[in-house]
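ok so I'm stuck.
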Amino acid sequence: MHTDPIADYLTRIRNAYAARKRSVEIPASNLKLGISAVLQDMGYIHGYKKIEDNKQGIIKIALKYDSVTKQPAITKIQRVSTPGLRVYTKAKEMPRVMNGLGIAVVTTSQGIMTGKQARAKNLGGEVLCYVY
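replied:
not stuck anymore, here's the structure
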């Protein structure tokens, strides 16, 4: 059993990019599906698909690389809020990652979104991770 499933999710993606894999399989949850949707919308991954098994399911994520330089689309993916130290922020204090070049993935009362989207909707929430 994992004490921090989001950290496990991010580590699997980080390790798959380091090993130059084309895809990675991760145990599914609604929170992980929401983060995958944000990553796809922002262009950090090609896509994702939930595969049903007789347990919790699996998310298969197609990783994205630059077509010319073969560099990963994600250079760094970092967990912010952990089970031992939750990080919450107000809409006005939403963090900017790499001066706007990266994204902060935030869970709000209206779902999982980027920090920029949460600031536009005037929503605060828990900062899950930074991606750039």
